[in-house]
UniProtKB/TrEMBL annotation:
It is a single-pass membrane protein; Single-pass type II membrane protein. Belongs to the ExbD/TolR family. InterPro entries: ExbD (IPR003400). It comes from Thiospirochaeta perfilievii. One of its GO terms (cellular component) is plasma membrane. This is Biopolymer transporter ExbD. GO terms for molecular function: transmembrane transporter activity. GO terms for biological process: protein transport. Gene3D superfamilies: 3.30.420.270.
C-alpha cells in the first residue's frame, strides 16, 4: 500500500521564523547584559559600611592624590574651579554635586573644594565611597 505524501518534490525550507527567533535571542542578550564603565580617571575610593545609591548627578568632581581636580572628567585648577563648576551645572538651581576623592588625598584639600562648592551656594553635596 502506497502512502500519499503531501510534500512535493519542490519543498522549500522557510528560514524566516529562524531569523525572527535569532533576533529575539539577540535582543534578549543585549537587554540583559551589563556594561562596565571605563573610567578615565582612576582613584582609590575609601570603603565604608553605610552607603546609598545615587540619583541623577549634575556635576561629578574627582580629586586625585596628585591634587588634580576634574569636573565631569575635564581637568581644572583651583583658581578656575568656581567658574568651571558653574559652567558644568548650567541653569539648575539645586544640583546634586558628587565629590569622589582618592583615599590618600589630604583632608585640607577635600575641605577647600567642599568650601568652594558651599560658597557658590550649593548645599546638595555627596561623597562617593565603596560599600564594604
Amino acid at each position: 500500500m502506497k502512502l500519499n505524501s503531501t510534500l512535493s518534490d519542490e519543498s522549500v525550507l522557510l528560514i524566516t521564523p529562524l531569523i525572527d527567533i535569532m533576533f529575539l535571542i539577540l535582543i534578549f542578550f543585549v537587554l540583559n547584559s551589563s556594561f562596565t564603565e571605563n573610567r578615565a580617571i582612576e582613584v582609590d575610593i575609601p570603603k565604608t559600611i553605610t552607603g546609598s545609591a545615587l540619583g541623577d548627578i549634575e556635576s561629578h568632581i574627582v580629586l586625585t592624590i596628585e591634587n588634580r581636580i576634574f569636573i565631569n572628567e575635564v581637568e581644572t585648577t583651583k583658581s578656575e574651579f568656581s567658574v568651571a563648576l558653574l559652567q558644568s551645572i548650567g541653569s539648575n538651581s539645586n544640583p546634586i554635586i558628587i565629590i569622589e576623592g582618592d583615599k590618600g588625598i589630604s583632608y585640607d584639600f577635600l575641605m577647600s573644594i567642599m568650601d568652594r562648592v558651599k560658597v557658590l551656594g550649593f548645599d546638595n553635596i555627596s561623597l562617593i565611597v565603596n560599600k564594604l
